From TrEMBL:
Residues 1-20, 82-122 are annotated as: Disordered. Residues 7-20 have a biased composition (Basic and acidic residues). It comes from the Bacteria. This is Uncharacterized protein.
Length: 145
């Protein structure tokens, strides 16, 4: 390998290490989201169109969440969530919360959620949560008619 090839290879390794570091930082954005009847964990993502592979598995997979749960909600709450999932798997879900950047004909945007399975794959339909006007104010879309 020539000196130039070594420099290129070293730079490629550095860039890959930096990319992995950025992914790990993004993975720490796990946040709790409350619901009346079930515990839900949500992840803020700048590009939720794709859940990425990480060193701990795919984002939002059971393994990925378990590795971050104590830091995200504290050991006591994390154990409570784990116990609830063990006792009744349907009582705990994984969801991605998405801020849709697309603007409708009225200049409004919306947020939505989509369920994620234990392997980190999005399943089911997106459910619209809230609508916002062009200034970011929460609105009732039925009043737009």
């Amino acid at each position: 390998m020539s000196a130039g090839e070594k420099v290129i290879a070293k730079e490629m390794r550095r860039q890959e290490k930096e990319r992995r570091k950025r992914i790990e930082q993004a993975n720490k954005m796990l946040i709790p989201v409350s619901k009346k009847t079930a515990m839900t964990l949500g992840m803020i993502s700048f590009d939720p169109s794709q859940l990425s592979e990480t060193n701990d598995g795919k984002q939002m997979s059971d393994n990925w969440i378990d590795k971050r749960l104590d830091d995200a909600v504290g050991k006591e709450k994390a154990d409570e969530i784990r116990d609830a999932a063990e006792d009744n798997p349907d009582s705990v879900s994984h969801e991605v919360y998405h801020i849709d950047p697309n603007v409708d004909d009225n200049g409004n945007t919306h947020t939505d959620t989509q369920e994620v399975d234990s392997e980190g794959n999005k399943v089911g339909e997106k459910i619209i949560v809230e609508y916002f006007d062009k200034d970011g104010n929460r609105i009732d879309p039925s009043s737009e008619a």
